[in-house]
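[step 3/7] inverse_fold.run input=structure_tokens len=516
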């Protein structure tokens, strides 16, 4: 009996062990199948993880300014690296090319990173020079590692190229002005396209005008660089702080500063005279009309700058009769330097207008009436009385308007665009330098604007203190900047009409000279 029970127990244990072994074998088999499938279905995911690890583990020597790199054991290096964090969907010479990036030359390897994949272009001449046969060669993987490392070093955390899972590779000749193209789904990527003379682009286009590249493809940054022999690569090392500062200032493009100063200088002339004229005009019309014009003149101050830019573009654009007229006579009002002046005038005008009007309204109307009874014309009253007495507020308004024009961004970008050396002002430079990952240039232009703003506020404070001291001094000395209303002096002796006219004119002249 016991023997039978023992035999049954042994059979149960044997069956249980067999079941466990079968389960383990099935798990191993399933794991193997999943591993094989993952390698077939998503090989790029494995490369993405390997690429990120390779960027971290590979001994890549990156230059101090982040534009060159050399890797140990690689026959070539990368120089002249450039990163464009954003492209443009605007028309070029009146034609649409989809979404475009500027490319420095057709001899550069380039990669466009999108939300779902990256498209790498290698010119055939470069591939032949360095023995790159196809997209599966080890040199292509080295190029990916180079670009991922430089991209990460150039601007960390923004669409990192090293985390991209899927790569498309194009090795082709750049055929004339049409460039080399690769179709990925509905999108066509073209590299080295010469749209205008000696200006090359990378374009991303859809099958038709209705295809929205930005929403369908979602392109991010475009990186490019030149491949050079590793032994000939120049990898600049970091120097001391003063050396780095000197090199930075020596290589800095100062055109945004000159464009900004030129724009603000011209704009403030228009703002000054238009603001004074508008303030004087509103004081001489009826109250009801005054309210309407005051609203019209002030509304740019409360509207968002982008709204002002859109409205100006709708009125002055090339699709309007007004805009076409100026385009035909060679004086375009949009996407030109003139557009930066127009935008600055529109956004700065309300500050000048409000300052001038407030100053004119604070003047004693009895004094102005007295001047009219003495035979003064309106022009003489304005130039000899109103302008000198209101000059403190007018000067402050002028400086504030200049500062507002200096910091204008939204309206200028809408109306004038971002053209280096022509319409790129300091605020626009700050935005696009930051978007392109150039943190040093962003901080430089930010500090420049902070210094300008500090000087503007300091000037206003010093000017206000100066005028306050002048008025206090006049009060202590017993002199009043306003003419006497009763026409008498000291003991109250009444003067003749002739003497009143002479004394009133003389007092006004002296007052005008003293205030000026």
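[step 3/7] decode complete -> sequence:
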């Amino acid at each position: 009996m016991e023997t039978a029970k023992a035999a049954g127990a042994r059979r149960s244990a044997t069956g249980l062990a067999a079941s466990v072994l079968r389960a383990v074998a099935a798990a191993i088999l399933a794991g193997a199948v999943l591993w094989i499938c993952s390698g077939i279905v998503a090989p790029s995911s494995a490369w993405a993880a390997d690429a990120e690890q390779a960027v971290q583990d590979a001994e890549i020597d990156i230059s101090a300014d982040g534009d060159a790199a050399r890797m140990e054991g690689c026959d070539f290096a990368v120089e002249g690296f450039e990163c464009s964090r954003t492209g443009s969907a605007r028309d070029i010479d009146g034609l649409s090319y989809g979404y475009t990036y500027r490319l420095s030359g057709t001899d550069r390897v380039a990669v466009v990173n999108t939300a779902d994949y990256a498209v790498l272009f290698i010119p055939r001449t470069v591939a032949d020079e360095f023995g790159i046969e196809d997209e599966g060669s080890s040199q292509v993987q080295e190029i990916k590692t180079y670009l991922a490392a430089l991209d990460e070093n150039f601007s960390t955390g923004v669409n990192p190229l090293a985390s991209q899972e899927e790569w498309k590779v194009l090795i082709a000749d750049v055929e004339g002005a049409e460039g080399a193209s690769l179709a990925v789904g509905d999108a066509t990527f073209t590299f080295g396209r010469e749209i205008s003379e000696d200006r090359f682009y990378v374009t991303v286009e859809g099958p038709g005008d209705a295809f929205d590249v930005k929403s369908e493809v979602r392109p991010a940054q475009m990186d490019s660089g030149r491949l050079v022999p590793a032994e000939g690569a120049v990898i600049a090392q970091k120097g001391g702080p003063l050396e780095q500062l000197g090199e930075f200032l020596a290589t800095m493009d100062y055109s945004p500063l000159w464009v900004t100063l030129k724009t603000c200088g011209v704009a403030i002339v228009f703002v000054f005279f238009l603001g004074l004229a508008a303030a004087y005009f509103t004081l001489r019309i009826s109250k009801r009309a005054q309210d309407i014009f005051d609203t019209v003149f002030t509304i740019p101050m409360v509207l968002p700058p982008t709204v002002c830019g859109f409205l100006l573009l709708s009125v002055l654009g090339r699709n309007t009769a007004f805009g076409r007229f100026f385009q035909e006579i060679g004086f375009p009002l949009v996407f030109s330097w003139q557009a930066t002046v127009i935008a600055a005038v529109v956004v700065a005008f309300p500050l000048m207008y409000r300052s001038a009007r407030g100053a004119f309204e604070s003047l004693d109307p009895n004094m102005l009436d007295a001047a009219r009874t003495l035979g003064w014309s309106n022009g003489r009253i304005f130039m000899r009385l109103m302008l000198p007495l209101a000059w403190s507020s007018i000067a402050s308004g002028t400086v504030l308007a200049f500062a507002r024009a200096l910091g204008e961004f939204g309206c200028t970008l809408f109306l004038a665009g971002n053209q280096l050396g022509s319409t790129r002002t300091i605020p626009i430079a700050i935005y696009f330098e930051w978007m392109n990952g150039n943190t040093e240039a962003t901080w430089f232009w930010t500090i420049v604007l902070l210094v300008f703003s500090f000087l503007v506020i300091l000037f206003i404070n010093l000017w206000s203190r100066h005028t306050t001291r002048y008025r206090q001094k006049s009060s202590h000395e017993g002199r009043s900047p306003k003419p006497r209303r009763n026409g008498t002096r000291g003991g109250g002796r009444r003067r003749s009409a002739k003497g009143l006219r002479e004394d009133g004119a003389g007092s006004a002249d002296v007052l005008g000279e003293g205030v000026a």
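[step 4/7] annotate
The chain is about 55% helix and 15% strand.
The chain has a mean pLDDT of 81.
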